[in-house]
Write a structure and sequence with these properties.
With 95 residues, the protein is α/β, with parallel strands linked by helices. The protein has one domain: Nucleotidyltransferase, domain 5. It has three helices and five strands. A five-stranded mixed β-sheet has the order 3-2-1-4-5, covered by helices on one side. A hairpin with a 4-residue loop joins strand 1 and strand 2. The N and C termini lie far apart (43 Å).
Amino acid sequence: MQWTVAIGVDTHKEVHVAVALDALGAQLDSREIATTPAGYQSLLSWAQELGVPAFAVEGTGSYGAGSFASSSMPTSASTSASAHAGRSAGVGRAI
């Protein structure tokens, strides 16, 4: 199944911020979700309302781990793909 909407998720301790982009990179929508099972389900439902989602989640080794531990996120039949986006090593950051 080909994705029709890309969902990028920036992870934080209390909330995650998700942005939805179309295939050309235009922003469709964004939202904050709670870092709870209900929040992850809300994210999946929202993404599926926009199309067939593919997810890129930052920091899946830390704050983002919960969203991919949720059984509905990576295995849903109506989710095209998922990717784990690592954190930057600090290259180019101001000190």
